[in-house]
Amino acid sequence: MNLNNFLIPALILIPLLSGVAALLMRSDVPRRILLVTAATIHSLLTFLAEGAPPLFNNWLALDALGRLFLCITSFLFLIVSIYSIGYLARERKAEKDVRFDFESSSILSNGPESLLTACLLFFLTAMTLVCVSNHLGLLWVAIEATTLASAPMIYFHRRRQSLEAAWKYLLICSIGIALALFGNFLLAVSTATLSGGETELLLDDLLLLAPQFQPLWLKAAFIFLLVGYGTKMGLAPLHTWLPDAHSESPSLVSALLSGALLNCAFLGILRSQQILIAAGFASFGQELLIIFGLVSMGLAATFILHQTNFKRMLAYSSVEHMGILALGVGLGGAGVFGSLFHAINHSLTKAMLFLTAGNIIMKLHTKSTLEVRGLSHSLPVSGALWMAGFLAITGSPPFGTFLSEFTILKAAIEQGHYAIAIGYALILAVIFIVMASIVLRMVQGKPLDGQEAPYESEPWLSVAPPIALFGLVLMLGLYIPPFLQRLLVEATRQLGGAL
Amino acid sequence: MNDLIFVLLILTGFVFLGSGRLQFAIRTLALQGILLGLIPLLGNWQGLWGRVLSIATISLVIKGLVLPYFLTRAMHKSKVMHEDHPFVGFTASMLVGIICLGASFWLASRLPVIASMPSQIAVAVSFFYLFVGLFVIMSRRKALTQVLGYLVLENGAYIFGVAYAIEAPFLVELGVLLDVFVAVFVMGIIIFHISKSFDHIDTDQLSTLVG
Amino acid sequence: MLNLSALLYVLLGLISAPLMLGVINRTKAICGGRTGQPLLQVYYDVVKLLRKDVVYSRTTTWIFRVGPMMALGGLITALLILPCGGAPAAFKFSGDFVLLFALIGIGRFFTILAALDTGSSFEGMGASRDALYSGLTEPVLFAVLITLARITGELSLSSVFANISPLLWSSSAAVLILVAVIIFVLLLTENSRIPVDDPNTHLELTMIHEVMVLDHSGPDFGFILFGSALKMWIFSALLIGAIMPVHTGNALIDGALFLGGMLLTAVTVGLVESTMARLRLLLVPRMLVGATAIAAVCIFLTLK
Amino acid sequence: MNMILAALIVMLVGGFGALLVRSIPKIANSLGLGGAVIGAVAGIVGAISVLLSPHAVNSLRVPWSVPFGSFYLAVDSLSAFFLIPVFLLTGLAALYGAQYIWTPQFKPMIASHWAYYNLLAASIVMVLVARNGVLFLVAWELMALASFFLVTMEHDKVSVQRAGWIYLASTHIGTTVLFFFFILLGTKAGSLDFDRIAAAGTQIHPHATLLFILALIGFGSKAGIVPLHVWLPEAHPAAPSHVSALMSGIMIKTGIYGIIRALMWLGPPSVSWATTLIVIGCVSGILGVLLALVQHNLKRLLAYHSVENIGIIFLGLGIGVLGQATRLPVLVVMGYGGALLHTLNHAIFKGLLFLGAGSVLHGAGTLDLEQTGGLFRRMPWTGIAFLTGAIAICGLPPLNGFVSEFMIYFGAFHAIQSNAALSALPAVVAIISLAMIGGLAAACFTKAFGIVFLGEPRSLQAAQAHESGAWMRWPMAALALLCLIIGLSAPLIPAMLEPVVTEITGFSLSSLPNLSKQIQSPLSLVLVVSLIFGGLIGALAWFRFFRLRGKSKSQTVTWDCGYATPTSRMQYTASSFAQPLMALSVGSMLLKKHIIKPLGFFPEDGSFNSENPDFVEGRFWKPSFKGVEWFLLRFRWMQTGSIHLYILYITVTLITLLIWKLW
Fold this sequence. Notes:
The complex is a heterotetramer.
Chain A lengths: L6 H18 L3 H21 L15 H33 L3 E2 L4 E2 L5 H20 L3 H19 L5 H31 L12 H7 L5 H19 L7 H8 L2 H29 L2 H23 L5 H22 L2 H31 L10 H4 L1 H14 L6 H15 L3 H26 L16 H19 L3 H13 L5
Antiparallel strand pairs in A: 1-2
Chain B lengths: L1 H17 L3 H21 L6 H30 L11 H21 L11 H18 L3 H21 L6 H29 L13
Helix pairs in contact in B: 1-2, 1-4, 1-5, 2-3, 2-6, 3-7, 4-5, 5-6, 6-7
Chain D lengths: L1 H19 L4 H28 L6 E5 L6 E5 L2 H24 L9 H20 L3 H19 L6 H32 L4 H6 L1 H4 L3 H16 L7 H8 L2 H11 L1 H13 L5 H23 L4 H29 L2 H36 L10 H4 L1 H14 L6 H19 L2 H33 L6 H4 L6 H19 L4 H13 L7 H36 L4 E4 L17 H12 L6 E5 L10 E5 L3 H19 L9 H20 L1
Helix pairs in contact in D: 1-2, 1-4, 2-3, 2-4, 3-4, 3-11, 3-15, 3-21, 4-5, 5-6, 5-11, 6-9, 6-10, 9-12, 10-11, 10-14, 11-15, 13-14, 13-19, 14-15, 14-18, 14-19, 15-17, 15-18, 15-21, 15-22, 17-19, 17-21, 18-19, 18-21
């Protein structure tokens, strides 16, 4: 009996059972400990999961691509769970103090913490399932499950805006996912021309038999899958739920949404693209991905410009980066490597930014960029992190994002897509500039009246997680660990790219 | 014979488009669910009858009974019985439905014929449901109606699934149903919260998050 | 490297430069029907000033005291590079004219600073105008040098002048005439003569060069006076050098020709001063830009 | 190489060490300073040893796990030449800075200041020794970021915030262009390692012109050529003065370094490149000095002079490239040599001037020219240092500025004398530009020095100004001395620059003995004449002293046409000094006047002030940015908040794709 056989089930069951337990637990502290413990074990298992054998007729398997996204998800969840200890404690305290909630002009009220914790864990379960499922139907189920697990978290702060955001999130994503279901079935139909007549939607089989698929059905299926998962991933103009959900949910949830959830949807698209590549229609998908990529980046620039809500700014930046991911895969070659690498960098950086945003909101009780000034005085650590995060997210050297964006640009130029390269670089520059004007205004200058009061030093539980993330992004810009390099190269190869 | 169910499905689709009373719309939906549950039985699945039967039963139960029941409860809780002022009127909606139908048949005709389908119009009907679902979500104000629209959309996909059930294994089928169920459940909860904190469930007024 | 014989010309310049001012003044006097001051009046003035005491403004610093020395020092050093009378200058090397004008420039730099050191608005005004004109004359000057370098194919002032031959005149007379005109305009400007500036005016508001040195007295002013004579000498020598086609090789003949030319220049300046009125201050830049235009014509003629 | 690596490490250790002991400012200050100075000394030794033995192996190559990257460092004589001013100015400005920031206002930031300062210095060094595209870009951006944080140290001021944004935006645009440059190079050469790029000549040459343009924009924006210069006049005044010295003195020179490096890779240049360089130099030089002339803020003025001097360097480069294109060794040596020497010189005298300006700010509390005056009596050290810098930057003998400008003149005149008309024209432009720049620079610096240091104080704070402390004075003195030393070592310069020019162009000076003499003798004679000039001044001073000995030297008020009690308000101002030139050269296009006329019988105070906004910024950059903004805002309606519309987007997207792909 090989213990490895239990790895994948453990990865799924541990958060699932912990989630159920969390739902039943009454007191806060053990529940928080449970959360961190589950996250830690999950991360450890993820780390060990290399070479885990496939299970259930290959339904669950961990290839390089899945492992890459699982690593991101699991690690991010660990960091966020640590952050959540301090965050939840402060939320609870604010609730007890009967603090006035400035955004909803009413007394602050939150959803039950047990529900949030449980949803976090279910969310992790679903995302793990996304990463390990080797069956497109299962993948679909898992992705829809992520939506369902995360929707209640968006409505953690009991405000009208959160409610609105949760509703939009749920409805739009569900519609998207329903389209993806269409896609899955169309894909299944496209296999009907095979002599055998019977194919399950197992990825391995699909990849093997793809060249014999009925091309038109396959293309139609891809369009549905792309639009469906693209909605969830936040590709413009399907991204509309994204800024609302990110800005209204608690910051730690936003961090997970942006850092982990979007990647999961991206994985769905990558799986579809894998099949297209195997079928010999790689360029069909690439063309669409490039268009979606550029449109997402451009539209994100539009909304980052003069953005007055800094969490929305981060959300639009996620749209931008999803565009970059799509573009990278669309370009193929080294672009795939850049794109996958960028997925890591973006997750770490964006999570760091959202956690920092959480610190800022916690202290200053506002999400408005106009009401935040002089962070470097009022919140020195978070202010510095905010600035550093801005530089990282815009792809400045020496951060990891620079390397990945650079790689994608290189791919574009190498393949002679000069117009795309110029458009890409131009949009990146515009976003850098418009984002700079927002971020600099927040960090620099003198704090506004009422904000300059000397705050107690920032609790380490709320600054250590973003600092850790920042350290990693910085490290990835200067050094890529060998195991990660191997993983990336392997995953890139799966998607038909090469460095 | 096979085509008959699909024709019935199309007709229920139109009925759904034209119904302003939510209770009626929910019942139409329940009818659709039952029709969908019948589709797997049409196929010629030698030796797979056990599987096919169980799928048919489960979808009959969930789509035909559980979901309608649940939706009716949500309707009573949110005290909204009627879709008052849709963006597109009910008569006009049915006209749009005709356009949708045309588009669906066009789309289906673009795709090569699949021999193993129980009916040749299955593809078109499923696209029709897709468009109708999307259209209802876009043209109705009440959150509950939008959920109904979502379910129609889902049914569209499901037609593919059951018409081609052998491709989608049992577990997946189950997962899909479970997901839909939970989705509707969560949506119901949110609708409840919306009606509580806004005193209405008009989604066009849920537009404070701009820019 | 060092041409000792040329040192004679340096000496000649030092001695006879003030005479040029005398000649100009005398010419003007004759034109005006007056007897005028003695030819050697400038010498008397310099000697007298050198013997006088000094009065300083309390505002000034040592910059004020150094200014005149710098100006004079620069001009005297410039004589070492200036070829006169067909003979090479004391120092002759490629690009020597750059140094020549840089030496004049450093004098001007300090003169302006000295003017600003007094804190007087009049002297500030003069300084401003002087700075303006130098900014305008510099490019013209170099345009002339480009033209000369181009037509003679030489890069040191001495060789350039040595190559101005009747042959060259026959081939590019137009250019040489234009060059002469430009240098003459520069001469008038740099030396603050009419029509650019009136050295004899008594209205400070309209002065340029004279107003900058209002506060100087005693030996300092003596330096300045002598310096302005030297400047006249240098520019006249440039003018003569640039157009003088006759180089006999006989030092005496060449020297005489040179001195004649200098005399003629002085008389011409005097005549110009007698016959022309002063330009309005705002028109001076226009005149200089006009000179620039002519210089551009020269360059294009040589580049063709 | 080892010494330079050691210098890098010492600097970084000092800087980040200061961050660790941030709670004790005194130790942090000495640690940061120590790191910078020790690193600088080690680095200078290392750089000079490389220059002296150019053929020794000076490289280090370590595999690096980032895509396309390798940790490849090397020092050739070009790098070494640029490293000398870097280390020199870093050390001296650090000494100065240690005292400059020892004020209550800066004290809380001392540790971070040193971290950024040393990081800036180290990243500049990295830029110069990096031999891989990715490594270069990382160092390049680190340099930009470190300097950005230094620029925005006093970010409580609105002007500093604005400066920071403009700087960040423009440096980012430049870097983006460099991305293209390096990627294109790397794509053609197959690697981003510089040795492979240099070896891949034939693959690169077909794209040389495109690459040349990219390099010009990318590196030019750092160097500050017009119209990419707008960040200079914003960033330099905002930064603490020793940082301005560092940025203006050496950081912008990395742009020059980059262009020279690019020229080495792009193969035989054409005359059109030379023309381009010269035109850029001409425009930057003249516009830079004109805009400098109208500034009221001393550091802004100096910043525009950096634009001007970059123009001069470009003129030199242009002449050098012209020489390569027409195969004239004299042009190559004098053009490149002049440009290189001017790079070094500018580092020295601009560093000196910025330190002087900082000293003025420190002592008199203002940089506004209209608030200063009469500081020479109060701050004699600063005054002399500033004066030296001013003379040097105006290119007047016997200081260093003259030597480099002379070399460029010399090269350009050679081009005129011996070239065909078409290639002589750029040289003509170069000469005229140089002459014009020279004249205007003199006007500008007589204004700057005269208004700030001479005359009477125009404000109370200027009247109460005090001299800076010894730590700030000695670095200035050292730089001033260097101006003189380089000026006086003119004849040695071609020999010194020979290995560098050979490295760049492949033209070997020593293989042309005749040429060496042709170049050597003018420079020697320049020195001789300069010395004579010095001697003459001495003689005149002696003469004057002798004459005045025992004579009465009465003191009185300045003669003001009989007006006996002149006040400082009656002095000529900086604006009035510059007015005629401005009115002449650019008309009233630039001038913005703010006039409050005295009205009525008992008028209130009237006032008049004028400002000259940078028209490149106002007429070109601002409208472009506004245009982009306008365009982007056109799409803002999309996020209306209506869920119905959102779902419409999804539907439309789906249908569009289906129709497009299945039609």
